[in-house]
Amino acid sequence: MIFYIDMKNEKEFLFGKRAYRIMGIGIALIVLGFVLMTGGGSDDPNVFNPEMYSPLRIRLAPTLVLAGFAALVVAILATKKK
Description:
Number of helices: 2
Shape: elongated
Number of domains: 1
Helix content: 40-55%
Distance between the termini: 19 Å
Strand content: 5-15%
Structural class: mainly alpha
Largest sheet: 2 strands, antiparallel
Radius of gyration: 19 Å
């Protein structure tokens, strides 16, 4: 956990609950994007598998990864509600 100690010697979370939720969504999007990018190769190097160039791996998966990183930036910049 990420804490900081204020002058009253009380521990508080660095980010708010909302920011941690956004971070969780961002990490889930990044993991999902990388999972969708896996596979598509061929066991035999002499055989071409066109599945490697499917729109799922070429367009959707990298978009999900970038959206996940953007969500992490938003979570870091989100203000903590008091």
